[in-house]
Write a structure and sequence with these properties.
globular; single chain; 8 helices; 7-stranded mixed beta sheet; alpha/beta; 45% helix
């Protein structure tokens, strides 16, 4: 992973998904052209592909992904919200970005409004540009980064499995 990261200059903006099929490719490409000094990273394929400042990295394990994300500056999710599936989704990669406290710049997905203080919800290309610029200025020790990490911890598998186990126990006691 470090060998791959060494080939991708900072600042890195990451879409931790496989391929760009769910993204608004026009926004993704236009934004990458608008910011030629930033590296845009996504996953897929068998070997690393570089097109300008856009990098496609081979798929990696979940643990490797969390490390990779921690070496990036911004989570970038310009979803194509003309697809109702995307508009109504809650991308789990959001919580992966939050695990590292990363600022996230995303399309305005309906189910993300509860996190509006922790990320940048965008409707226009200008919104995306502004969100990226503000994200890159965010201090590494900012309070909002810590809040993102707390959200991640509350959604972690360990936390939710403990709650699930308590619920099962309560149901068994009642029956």
């Amino acid at each position: 992973i470090d060998k791959i990261l060494m080939q991708i200059p900072q600042p890195r903006l990451i879409y931790a998904g496989l391929g760009l099929n769910r993204l608004n490719k026009s926004i993704y490409i236009d934004i990458s052209i608008r910011f030629p000094c930033y590296s845009f990273v996504s996953f897929g394929g068998d070997s690393m592909i570089k097109e300008g400042n856009r990098y496609v990295v081979p798929a990696i394990s979940k643990q490797e992904m969390l490390y990779f994300i921690s070496q990036c500056k911004v989570g970038f999710m310009p979803y194509d919200i003309t697809d109702p599936h995307n508009l109504h989704c809650v991308p789990l990669k959001l919580f992966d970005y939050f695990s590292a406290g990363l600022p996230v710049v995303s399309s305005k997905l309906l189910n993300l409004s509860q996190y509006k203080e922790l990320l940048f919800l965008c409707e226009t290309k200008k919104d995306f540009e502004s969100g990226i610029e503000k994200s890159l200025k965010e201090e590494i020790d900012s309070e909002v980064r810590e809040k993102r990490k707390i959200v991640y911890q509350s959604h972690s598998t360990n936390k939710t499995s403990d709650a699930f186990e308590r619920c099962i126990r309560e149901l068994l006691i009642k029956s």
